Amino acid sequence: MEHASTANGKLPRELLELIFKNLCPTIEDRDSDPGQLDRLLLVCRFWTMVALDYRHLWSSIFIILKREPDYAFWTSYARTRLQRAGPTEPLQIKLITRGLYNQTDQDEEMKILLSILTGSTGEVAQRWRQLVCVSTKPTTKRIYDHFFSFPTPKLEILIINGVSILQTYQFLPDTPSLSELRLAWCNIPHIKDLSSLICLDITMSGNAANLLEQATRLERYKYTHLRDWELTRTIHLPRLLHLEIMAPFFSGSLNRLTAPNLVGLRIHLPRSDHISWVFNAPGIPLRTLRELDLYSCLMDEQLDKGELRKLLLATPNLKKLSSGQPNIAVLLLCLLLDMDNLHQAAPGLLFGCLNDTALLGVGEERQKTIMRLLEIIKEKYKHLLYISV
Question: Alpha-carbon dihedral of residues 146, 169, 219, 59, nearest 10 degrees?
């Protein structure tokens, strides 16, 4: 690779841009110092020139509103960041509101900031690639409606947490590129185009059946709630690979889901009869399942061993079996001790309980490994074991 001249002791421009690329924040970053990138402009004139020419460096705008002065700062600085990013660079927007909130004074400031992040006619929203909106404070419910009303043809990742949306306007009317959608503690909006959706994660946000019906290319689906997961109509998801239902569910709901290519299942079992609902579901291909993770919140009784045995017999091709609950893990290991004809293909079954995992192996080694793992779990998690084992 040829580099630009290093005369006068300057770093080659290509190398400096590579450094800047590694400094670009991602949506996974928890906190971002808004002045961090600006300090690059203080190094020298050459750094300033290269940094301002490197549009991607300024295209991630991570806003955290904790105190009243933050609103005035970001109302000004967001414009600066957008100007530096240029008119075409795809944008990552992360907006988090925390702390005290004076609804009368700050609603108007919030509206101004939201308008900057969309553009007056939606020209900025057209460039969103990733959008994260998190609110841990009360706001006027209609404040975000206009913010979400513009076409977003480049949007790939959308994460909404704690934001109320009344949908006075049509919600994101154009999302042909949306591949990942995570909704938590908010109402489920109607999204017109989910043809590219691959990952859907719903947490404490109501029923997402209307989204599932449109997301025919879905590969990962996770639902977490205290209320029952329910499907009232048949849903066919031919590309679904991983399913997580971390909620109680109605008996017929799994029967209405068809996922012929499913390889990973994580499911909440609030009662023993839910086990039979799983292995009797015609659309769940248990025989070809590769990963199974079981969870239960039972406090005064244990899951029925006979039903668990049936489930293990129905999943002979598992590569990984796990439970985040020591009680269930102990029950499963005890069953595996007796069912020594299962999972005998080398290198054996990978078993997990919380932070402890072990490859069980085959033959005599399998029996010894299970016994050691049982001792570890019983000792390490004895304060969590509420059944006699």
Answer: -20
Q: What is the pLDDT of residues 4-48, one digit of tens each?
A: 444 455 678 888 878 777 777 665 555 566 677 788 788 888 888
Report the SS3 class of residue 16.
helix
What is the rounded CA–CA span in Å between residue 323 and residue 357? 10
Closest CA to 118 of 142, 90, 150: 150
User: Is the bond leading into 347 cis (omega within 30 degrees of zero)?
Assistant: yes
Nearest to 126 by CA among 85, 161, 174, 167: 174
Contact 154, 127 (CB under 8 A): yes
User: pLDDT confidence of 3, banded at 50, 70, 90?
Assistant: very low
| 319 half-sphere exposure, CB direction, 13 A CA radius | 7
The tens digit of pLDDT for each residue in 102-149 reads 555 667 888 899 999 999 999 999 999 999 999 886 555 578 888 999
Strand bridging mode 242-246 / 220-224:
parallel
Residues 6+ positions from 127 with CB-CB distance below 8 Å? 88, 89, 90, 91, 154
pLDDT digits (tens, 9 = 90+) for 231-286: 989 999 999 999 999 998 888 899 999 999 999 999 998 888 889 999 889 999 99
pTM of the model: 0.87
- Please count the CA atoms within 13 angstroms of the CA of 291 that sit on its side-chain side: 13
DSSP state string for 232-282: SS-EE-TT--EEEEES-B-TTTGGGEE-TT--EEEEE-SSTHHHHHHHT-T
Between residues 124 and 296, the one the model is more confident about: 124
Q: What type of residue sits at position 361?
A: G
Q: How far is CA 13 from the centre of its chain?
A: 37
Q: Which helix (H) or strand (E) holds 130?
A: strand 128-135
pLDDT, the chain, mean: 85
